[in-house]
Amino acid sequence: MTKYVLYLFFCASLISCNSTQIIAQENIQSVSYQKWVAGLEDGGSGVNFYVNLIQPLHKDIALISVHFHGQEALFEKTSETEYVAKIHSGQKDLIMDENPENEYGNQSAVINLKSNEAILTFHKNGETFTKKVENVKEKPIIAFPSRNKEKN
Question: Residue 63 falls within a domain, yes or no?
Answer without folding.
Answer: yes
